[in-house]
Amino acid sequence: MNLPEYNPDDKVWQRIEAKLNDENKAKVLAEMPEYEPNAAVWGHIAAQLKPAKFFYLKWLAAASLLIISSLYFFRDTNEIQFSKQEIEQGFLNKTVAKSQISYAEIKKVCQQEKIVCEKPEFRVLESELEDLNTASVALQEAIGKYNTEPELLGQLAEIESQKAEVIKKMADQI
């Protein structure tokens, strides 16, 4: 029989941590020896310190380099750029068909070995695959038969890739 879970308020942990820190600090500080160096030591340290006369020059150089590089990259070039993407008409249809065939084979195995397919992990993957199938069908309807939107084709390719990964995970569990 498990006891009910209880999560204390964050303030409780903060108070405990503060108390431990205060006790440890006081104990450590009480045990530490105190030393006072003589003036010659501080004079020796001060003599070795270099004045920071180049500090502002470094920042000035960095700022000017940043301004010059931003002007170079953001200049107006008045160029028109375009690209053309071509996707083979049957490519995505073949990919969709392959994933459907693979899923059908997994279903056949599930009919023979029901124990494996009834595991919660397998059910989650199956649910995820159904969601991806629904999204794929909806996207295919949005694309239509002319395939004119490259963004939609890219999304469909991504969905098919995710479906393949889920089918692979399902196959690994069988």
UniProtKB/TrEMBL annotation:
The keyword Transmembrane helix applies. Keywords: Membrane, Transmembrane, Transmembrane helix. The keyword Transmembrane applies. The chain crosses the membrane at residues 56-74. This is Anti-sigma factor. It comes from Lacihabitans lacunae. The lineage of its organism: Bacteria, Pseudomonadati, Bacteroidota, Cytophagia, Cytophagales.
